[in-house]
Design goal:
InterPro entries: Beta-barrel_OMP, OMP/PagP_B-barrel. By secondary structure, the protein is mainly β. Helices cover 11% and strands 61% of the residues. Strand 4 and strand 5 form a beta hairpin.
Amino acid sequence: MKTLQKTILALATGSLLTVGANAAVNYGNGYTGQPYVGAKIGQFDLDIDNADDPTAYGVYAGYNFDPNFGMEVEYVGSDDADYRGGDIDAKTYGAYGTYRYAFPNTGLYAKGKLGVAKTEVEASNTVAGLYDGSDDDTNLAGGVGLGYAVNSDFSVEAEYDMLGSDADLMTVGAQLKF
């Protein structure tokens, strides 16, 4: 990732957290909105023949407006995976609305998200006639997951995200709430 992109991502994440922390509002039901940040690791599932699926790693930030509804932004990148004598690399940027359903008295919750994701895939190889170049698509994206609230400030989650016609993403991660 280029230095300018990293800087913009860091500034946007910091701004979201600052706005979220300052925008904590009591919604009249005793719930005050809650910002959070997290990290995840997993694997991309790319629709490219004869390519290994790259390992994914990412960061995300969000804000729960009430116990069920919220919003989330994320960046997920990958390592270079083998592709017939070359490499394949993927990354995605997403913005989602989220919904959580907490299972009573367990700490477990189900999570759904729906939004927009931009997915970029770059491949290079030394064998003529194979895919060599880049592709980037912005699509409707969504995901489902299962989480466990260890306590009121820390959760772990497993997710499956559909990023469009060419890529899916499976991750496990942890988040810290403020």
